[in-house]
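Contributing new records

If you add data, match the layout below exactly. Sequence lines come first and carry their own label; structure lines follow with theirs. Keep one chain per record. Anything else will be rejected by the validation script.
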Amino acid sequence: MKLQIISILTLTVGAQAVELTSENFDALTSGKTVFLKFYAPWCGHCKAIAPAWKQLEEKWASNDTGFVGSVDCTADGKSLCDAHGVNGFPTLKWGDPAALEDYQGGRDFEDLDEFASENLKPVCSVTNIDLCDDEKKAEIAKFQAMSVDDLKAYVADLEKRMNEADEKFQDSVEKLQDRYEEMDSEKDRKVKELKISANLKLLKSIRKLKAPEGTVLDDDIDGNMDDDDIPDDDDIPDDDMEDLPGGDEL
């Protein structure tokens, strides 16, 4: 009896959570606004979001206007992941199945559910042209009048310019990183140079020795000075005592 109940539950969940592939994608998403998770089974972040996403899929199962689904990028859904430019996991995308946009919101169930409720509605698209305004209808008509080769060239040009913009950004980031490392090294060199030239360790040691009993110095709070760093009076050269700013009143 127990095994029978488990089998029934498994079949129920399986019926609600459909894995999208290139074979069933069009049939399941046509005419709907979608919210999709592109994932890899081994991905830790994918496992973390899985319970919330499963709950969302079950809530939107068999909905007439919106669709929530998953695409396994390591199995039959790999071609879909490649087609939609998925580079990391999990990647969440939404919108018109033919022109998905990146989702940038929170990843707990409350955030996902709120976003889905607000956005998985019928929207203007090639398959829902009656929802478009005149300007959008004219734009769609313009592209529909183009040949397949012209559309391919148009898209290729846009993607090329997008890639160029991304490459320019990455190059700028690398230059900033190089500059940051250069400045950090320069700072470390200067600090070390100042410590050595000013005999900072000796100055702090003498300051601590000459401070009134019970005085709490910055070094005591920061933990930068240990008792082992404090020299005995006999270890402090007379010349160094005379060179201290303020003489005996440090």
